Amino acid sequence: MSAALLYVPRPVDVRADADGRPVAVRGIAVEAIREEWLIEDRWWAADPISRLYFEVVLADGRCEVVFRERGRWFAQRA
Length: 78
What we know:
Blueprint: H1 3-6, E1 10-11, E2 14-16, E3 22-25, E4 28-41, E5 49-58, E6 63-69, E7 72-75
Antiparallel strand pairs: 1-7, 2-3, 3-4, 4-5, 5-6, 6-7
């Protein structure tokens, strides 16, 4: 498996609160949001990128990086 494939975003089931912040990932509660950031790129292109990222700590102790783009959620390895 190519290392580049590890970083390909994959669709993920995220439940968010009314403010759009994740409260569960794959059915596992989010204990904390460690970081939140916005990436906007390719604004000059026909398909610009605008992603709102969250680094979360889940109830089982794992850390995950998830982002929302065009109303859909994805997980991406850091």
